[in-house]
Amino acid sequence: MAAKSAAREWTESIIIAFILAMFIRTFFIQAFRIPSGSMLPTLQIEDRLMVNKLLVGPKFPFTRYRLPGYGKLKRGDVIVFVYPENPKKDFIKRLIAFGGETIEIKFGDVYINGELITDPRIRNIYYYNYGPNALPGESIKVPEGSLFVLGDNSASSHDSRYWGFVPEDNVIGKAELIYWPVNRMRFIQ
Prior knowledge:
The protein is an alpha+beta fold.
């Protein structure tokens, strides 16, 4: 009889822990692994991150309904989002421009609505004029409800310059913390 109750306690504990973990992953924070070098040097291949879903508001699973977030994304934030060309993939890039803004890349610098971006997280990176959405001498307007994102490793990043804009609804959250490997543990700038 004692063996049955011990087995039942273990089973109940495992089920409760699983439900709690899924609840936290769905509504609060989610772990991600960096598979490529598109965000070098900010994020290294195989870095493990914690992504804050509460800032933008978590989505209810299998629906398009999103809870209200407690804040707003800012230019320069590193965000994780559902890749617009393949909803089974998540991408991570730096947020550069919001809907309604005009973006232009000139001589490696980013201009929003004709003004040079001075935020050092963006300003200290040389962005190349690669792709149909970053042609030299041309500006592009970000549609309302969308975002323009770039990888920090501009020469090797598949980003908005190529495939276009990220619908705001595709945003999963803001990358906040590198938690692995231990020697790289820090908040993400």
